[in-house]
Amino acid sequence: MRKLFTLVCFSLIVAGLSAQVQPQVRRGKPANGQTWRPENTEIWYPVPAKVTPGEGTAAPSDAIVLFDGTNLNEWESSNAEDPTVKWKLEGGNLIAVGGVGSIQTKRWFGDCQLHIEFRSPAEVKGDGQGRGNSGIFLQSLYEVQVLDGWENSTYSNGMLGSIYKQYAPLVNPARKPGEWQIYDIIYTAPVFGLNGVLVTPGYLTVLLNGVLVQNHSELKGSTEYIGMPKYNAHGLAPISLQDHSNPVAYRNIWIRQL
Fold first, then answer.
1. For the chain, what is the domain count?
2. At the N or C end, where does the chain have fewer CB atoms within 10 A?
3. What is the pLDDT of residues 19-46, one digit of tens each?
4. For position 28, what pLDDT does the model report?
5. Structural domain of 210
């Protein structure tokens, strides 16, 4: 009898504790016949990680700084036979040197938020694609065009703010030659399944000087100068900057892995 009494008391205590805990549950819809309460649509966990935003030229606290003007430790030549970077480090800027080849990050990335600042030469030489030309390649395959976009006539899907040969920019917020410009790029990498089959295409959202120029644009495949874009299965890969024989300068480059 005493055991039964103890068991009953224990059951009542557990039931009481459950009744106290239950109102704090913050997920799941009410059972049939019950009314909705505010807490039925509250999600408390997981709690997002705290990130300190950057101020001025400072990167967010969870970013990887790829170039801060002091060294080229995060970079190498895209030429596998000679990884030495032959671009110039001058006045805190990374400057393309024509004819020496593109450069790429030593680290490999997939989904990311990329911040990068660039400047075309103040002295205008050439026109169209021959004026302030470079490029930012996500996973070394998908190009966001860098070009002098100030009063410079060229094909729309090759101008500043374009996803090269795929999408023209929504608008043209280019600054004058010799002025610093800012790209903020959100990149979602393509996903491949068995036998290299494309499961999900890649996407790019791009802001140029704080203005949206690509709105979740679906990549049609890798960047092709001649012919149509196409996908080939791949994994993580470097960010690369193109040498297009124009002395385009870069600074303040950082990336957040998503």
1. 2
2. N
3. 444 444 455 677 777 889 998 899 999 9
4. 67
5. 64-257
